Amino acid sequence: MKLKKGIWLLLIIALLLSCNKENNEQYISLLDDFEQITEQNINNENAKNNFEQNLINESTTENKPINIPQPFLFNENYDLLTDYSWSISDGRRYENKPNSLDWVGNMTPLVTFKKFVAPEYSVFYQEQLRNERFTLVYQTDEIDILYILENSLSSGFYNMEYNTDFSSLSLRKNNVSHGRQDRNGEQVSLDHPLIGVWGYLPYLTKYRLIDHSEGLFYMEIDRKIPFWAVRRGTYLLRQTGENTFETITSFAEGRLELEIIDERRILLRPVFTLPDDEEGLLELLIMHRSYNKTDDIDQ
Description:
Shape: globular
Largest sheet: 8 strands, antiparallel, barrel
Number of strands: 16
Radius of gyration: 40 Å
Number of helices: 3
Helix content: 10-25%
Strand content: 25-35%
Strand order of the largest sheet: 1-2-11-12-13-14-15-16
């Protein structure tokens, strides 16, 4: 009987040991599974954090202002601006305004830009003929010579002749008389007697001093812009921003602003008002760069 009890006891112990072994193996397996799940959760959490951070970085990058200098600004010679002509058209469509006008052929005004280099010891004047055209002229230490800043209509210089009290002025170019004009109004400057109004309509001409110290370029509008009040002629330009310019002018109706949109488009905006007796649009214009260089066209 004792032997049987002993055998049963041994069987029970063996069974218990066997159960403990299985439990231990299951426990170890559960621990392994738990560690794998924990590691996977950590990896998932890290991936989530990285994804969210990437989104934040991308969003931050998108919201940062991106300064992209216009292509011609990279070129110290400003070739894209000065080596091509620019045609002018109605710019109101750019502002989604109705009643856009189109002109073709010889009606289309052209603009050219040139780098401005002022001769040493020069004094610059802005000349206005009637209310139609601006010209840039200057004097150096030769007070009896009036130089013309090169444009499509004229270049070179005039020989100036005043009478004794500076009340009349005669201009000669290449020994050919270009007219005599009497002063119209008071003489406002003894140092610069050219300043003032000369002659009468239809040859009424005004000369005013202009500060050329900030001049970077000058541009020429070669003909009247149909329906617009913007004058043709030459304008001195200063840079006001990375892609913006304005005219340097002594006349209110010479105030224009330019904004470079890209390497092919420039906005031209008049920023003046007209007297009651004058008509003309003061709306946005847009300039488009031609595909051919001006030198190629001339050749």
